[in-house]
Amino acid sequence: MRSLFDFGGYVSVFILVLVFGLMASVDLQAQELPKFEAEIRVEVNDTDGDAGFQLFVDGDPWQRIRVKGPDGRHVYGVSNRGKLRRFGSAELFTESNEPNYADLSLPEILEFMPEGEYEFKGFTIDRQKVETTAELTHDLPCGPEVIFPAEGEEVDPTQPLIIAWMPVTNKIDTSSPTGECGNETDIEIEHYELVIEIVDSEPEQKLTVILPPDTTEYLVSPDFVVPGAEYKFEVLAREESGNQTITESTFFTSD
Prior knowledge:
Mean pLDDT is 88; it is low at 1-5, 10-19 and 24-30. It contains 2 helices and 14 strands, in the order αββββαββββββββββ. The termini are far apart. It folds into 2 domains: 36-136, Immunoglobulin-like (Sandwich), CATH 2.60.40; 146-253, Immunoglobulins (Immunoglobulin-like, Sandwich). It is mostly beta strands. The chain has helices at 4-32, 106-112, and strands spanning 36-45, 50-68, 74-79, 89-95, 116-124, 129-136, 146-148, 153-155, 161-165, 189-198, 205-211, 217-220, 230-239, 244-253. Strands 1, 2, 3, 4, 5, 6, 8, 10, 11, 13 and 14 form an 11-stranded mixed beta sheet that branches.
């Protein structure tokens, strides 16, 4: 006859096997969850006086995505159709039109996409449901104020060329029809982005650099500075929630 200890031992082993089996199953399910990430932001062009919205999705191959706003209303949708439907899409970047403030004021533009949590839902090519959320704020950094070179200035290509701007410390007044820089300073810049392009160059010559928030100048490589050329550049300030504001300018190099 078996003792109670023997039965207790079998029961203990069974419980341990069951617990470890459940843990392994949960861990496997967690590993098999499809990747799905999303961002949503406002982009302002301080030079042109316009603004619009950008959406970004990245993840395992998907076939359809739907986006709903904080009020539950449908905001955006995309479906992968045609022959590539079987492959699915792994990345999406789209941006809206950017109405000029003369046609639509900044408060009217922001009214289309209120602040809050946006819900991204869809399914993969394997028919797995995917969903995530992204937060949209109306915290908009003021446009970077370029110090050098001045708009349209002619510079000596034999001398070191430094593009410099003032640090962005304030937010745009979102009640202003034309997006004027406001007095509020509760904004944190994540980074600056500088894009420099030689106009009408063949092939296209463009330089893009990402700079930390405490860096507000950049020494352009001498190899990129040629005589008798027109340059256009933009300085972009991105704040911590992803919203960004661009200032554009141009300069020339002497012969």
